[in-house]
UniProtKB/TrEMBL annotation:
Cellular component GO terms, alphabetical: cytosol; DNA helicase complex
Upper taxonomic lineage: Bacteria, Pseudomonadati, Bacteroidota, Chitinophagia, Chitinophagales
Protein name: DNA 3'-5' helicase
Class in the EC hierarchy, top level: isomerase
EC numbers: 5.6.2.4
Length: 775
DNA sequence: CCGGGCATCCTTTTT
DNA sequence: GGATGCCCGG
């Protein structure tokens, strides 16, 4: 590393980098070179004799962690950098918990539940407690539990907290405490932790095992935390515990960019840091290197409407730049078209590449209109966030096998795959198994292993045994030190999943097959890439699973620099920057969201979100809103967002006509910025469908089958006595005549002609009942 | 027991 | 418009 690294910094940046011991708070405005400071500071620490093994650096996203690692490597070289502990809160804690799992009674291969897994456990529990999931919405219940854990509250404490009980009573949901308790028990029994547990259990571990605390306090002598404004109480307490021995804590944050309170983050953590740690050195990074004056001034002006901030004045030496283009369209589809057209225009006019553009929206659901318009214009794009690769059904199914092999305590995942592919283990069998497992207080898996003993018979027993044997064969492979890829291949073959998807020639089937292949490839890549840190040399299944559970699709981009327009939510864009940004959907009830306008705090968070959105842009910023848009399938009208009124008029250009609002059938020929513009605009308005009234009648289809009222004395007859030629009555189809019988004695199928209900039908007599009216 | 078809909810934002 | 849940027919 060269000695000049300090000279590339401005005054406050250098002050931050050179502070080595004692608490440090860096208030880093948007685009003020925060990552540069963090990475340079790590270099500086090492330069001054700090051991890389003693540095812990925590971020919120994999992306941020990855970037930090890469930048440190660039300064230090990879041999030294690999000894640093850089990762997300969740991944670092998962690793530590894995090492200490047995102390908490967990297997070291514990499963990590994502929120879908968690909600499905909650549904099971609601069912068991005989609670109505219409009233106890899994989403809501999960949110309460999550909030409790983020505030380090156990089920016991939850149940005895007066304020919380009042709240739940008032909402008429008094059982949430019990659900939480049962949920926690079930997760433990399953050997599984959800995302929040990774923080909560980490806290408990440090709190209740002093020797563990001491070990890690000693190991992590220097701690750095990125995006400190987004930490929640659990993270806060963990950091406090870890840092207590040496207080070499460096936090970086910007209160103006705190946008995660819905996840339990409290802005108080950063506002109070100075009070928590005596002699905190505070450094403010106020020079913005990213944006034009126009962009920055708009951002500053808007955020000025928030109260109670850390005082700072963000400024820039950059050029004034173009005004912010504010564009109104009639509909969401037109908004999509506007953006795609403008991208095409800007590419020509200002020689941009696709990768220079980013479309930012408030909710994932908004992506559709932009996808459609970009596709029509043949502009390559990629959506970040939304349903990630690992949340796809086929991927989750496949991974469930691997998870079960790794941890048979995991009832949730066993249930997911026990009948996939179909092997004749149905709902009845699963329920019976659950009851047995509960009654005997043994794992679900053990009931399956001892199925014969528990009275399962015939085909069911055979199917269960086959399933158990198969899983055990995979486990044997784990024992024999086969790596994750070998086992995944075996799973794909033995289960028949790969073959089944291969034979499915529908479009979706094809996509699923490709996804599975991609998954297998990624597992292969995992096993073949040498690990950077000495602690994780093996390429075991367990290691693999642990890693991917915390992966969101953001990290999945090997094509980081591929030339595509990026689409994402504003939340996902935090920390990123783009030459040209489209900030779309600036409408009341969408942005700010109708969910977040009830309190001042909520509204201020929305405003901070807008601030984040604006400050992503380097040189050009387009802001758009639609007069009306489709929501849940019908057209709604929205007022322009109140944030638009907060933007200073002198930096706004409302006259921009768009890259040419084209006529709806324009397709390949994009007619922007030329003399046809007027025509195009007119046409566009006219071609709006007449559904714009907002009323859409949904015609009710007539029932195909005429409803037959069964005879009052209807009693099904024994299928064994039925023969062709008999006249019969069906509860739905009415009267008919049997024309043929087939099937073995235990599964007879009658072909019956029902004159009043569409003619000939095949009736499986085991399930559908017939009464004989004439022999 | 299983799969298809309809009805119903939905929407913040993410590790 | 889209995913999940439930019901019913085979």
């Amino acid at each position: 590393m060269n000695d000049n690294y300090l000279s590339e910094l401005n005054e406050p940046q250098r002050a931050a980098v050179m502070h080595i011991n004692g608490p440090l708070m860096i208030v880093a405005g948007a685009g003020s070179g925060k990552t540069k400071v963090l990475t340079t500071r790590i270099a500086h620490l090492l330069r001054n004799g700090v051991d890389a093994f003693n540095i812990l650096s925590l971020t919120f996203t994999n992306k941020a962690a990855k970037e930090m690692k890469e930048r440190v490597e660039r300064i230090l070289g990879s041999s030294e950098a690999r000894n640093l502990y850089i990762g997300t809160f969740h991944s670092v804690f998962a690793r530590l918990l894995r090492a200490e799992a047995t102390k908490l009674g967990y297997p070291s291969d514990f499963t990590i539940y994502d929120s879908d897994d968690a909600k499905s456990v909650i549904k099971t529990i609601l069912h068991e407690l005989n609670l109505d999931d219409k009233h106890y919405k899994p989403n809501l219940v999960y949110g309460r539990i999550s909030a409790a854990k983020n505030n380090l509250m156990s089920p016991e404490e939850y149940k005895h907290d007066h304020a919380i009980q009042q709240e739940d009573m008032r909402a008429n949901r008094p059982m949430i405490g019990h659900i939480y308790e049962a949920y926690a028990k079930r997760c433990f029994k399953n050997g599984a932790m959800d995302f929040d547990d990774l923080l909560y259990k980490m806290y408990l571990l440090l709190k209740h095992f002093p020797e563990v605390l001491h070990k890690y306090q000693h190991k992590f002598k220097y701690i750095m935390i990125d995006e400190y404004q987004d930490t929640n109480p659990a993270q806060y307490e963990i950091i406090k515990l870890l840092g207590a021995a040496h207080e070499n804590i460096c936090v970086v944050g910007d209160d103006a960019q705190s946008i995660y309170s819905f996840r339990g983050a409290t802005i108080q953590n950063i506002l109070q840091f100075e009070k928590d740690y005596e002699d905190t050195k505070v450094v403010k990074l106020e020079q913005n290197y990213r944006s034009t004056k126009s962009i920055l001034n708009v951002a500053n002006e808007v955020i000025g409407n928030n109260k109670g901030q850390i005082e700072k004045a963000l400024w820039t030496d950059n050029i004034e730049g173009e005004k912010i283009k504010l564009v109104r369209t009639m509909t969401d589809n037109e908004e999509g078209k506007f953006v795609a057209d403008t991208i095409a225009e800007q590419k020509l006019r200002n020689h941009y590449n696709n990768r220079d553009f980013c479309i930012l929206y408030r909710t994932n659901a908004q992506s559709r209109s932009f996808e459609e318009s970009l596709r029509r214009m043949n502009i390559a794009y990629r959506i970040f966030g939304g349903i990630s690769f690992y949340q796809r059904k086929e991927i989750k199914d496949f991974l469930s096998y691997l998870r079960v092999v790794s941890n048979t305590r995991d009832e949730e995942n066993i249930k997911r795959i026990i009948n996939y592919p179909i092997r004749g283990i149905g709902k009845t069998t699963i329920e019976k198994t659950m009851v047995l497992a509960n009654d005997q207080d043994i794992p679900f898996w053990e009931v399956l292993v001892r199925a014969r003993e528990f009275g399962f018979k015939g085909g069911t027993l055979e199917a269960i045994d086959g399933f158990v044997t198969m899983i055990q064969s995979f486990q044997a492979m784990v024992q024999q030190q086969h790596n994750a890829y070998d086992i995944a291949i075996a799973v794909g073959k033995s289960t028949g999943i790969v073959k089944e998807l291969f034979n499915d020639k529908t479009t979706e089937g094809l996509a699923r097959y490709e996804n599975i292949q991609e998954l297998l490839n990624s597992i292969k890549e995992f096993t073949e890439t040498p690990t950077e840190d000495g602690e994780l040399l093996e390429k075991s299944l367990g290691t693999y699973l642990q890693q991917i559970s915390l992966l969101t699709d953001a990290d999945n981009g090997s094509d980081e620099n591929s030339d595509v327009v990026k689409l994402m939510t504003i939340h996902a864009a935090k920390g990123l920057e783009f030459p040209v940004v489209f900030n779309v959907g600036l409408e009341e009830s969408l942005f700010p969201s109708s969910m977040s306008i009830n309190t001042r705090e909520e509204l201020e968070e929305e405003r901070r979100l807008f601030y984040v959105a604006v400050t992503r842009a380097k040189t050009r910023l387009f802001i758009s809103y639609a007069n009306s848009r489709y929501r849940f399938g019908n057209l709604v009208q929205n007022e322009p967002s109140r944030f638009l009124d907060e933007m200073p008029e002198k930096y706004i250009d409302r006259s921009y006509a768009g890259g040419g609002v084209r006529n709806a059938f324009g397709g390949s020929n994009s007619g922007w910025g030329n003399s046809n513009n007027m025509f195009d605009r007119k046409k566009t308005v006219v071609t709006q469908p007449p559904t714009a009234t907002g009323v859409r009648s949904t015609p009710k289809p007539m029932p195909v089958v005429s409803t037959h009222v069964p005879s009052p004395n209807f009693t099904p007859d024994d299928p064994a006595t039925m023969e062709a030629g008999m006249e019969v009555e069906h509860q739905k189809f009415g009267f008919g005549t049997i024309t043929a019988m087939e099937g073995a004695s235990h599964n007879r199928i009658a072909t019956v002609v029902f004159p009043k209900a569409g003619g000939e039908k095949k009736i499986m007599l085991n399930y559908a009942k017939l009464m004989i009216t004439k022999r």
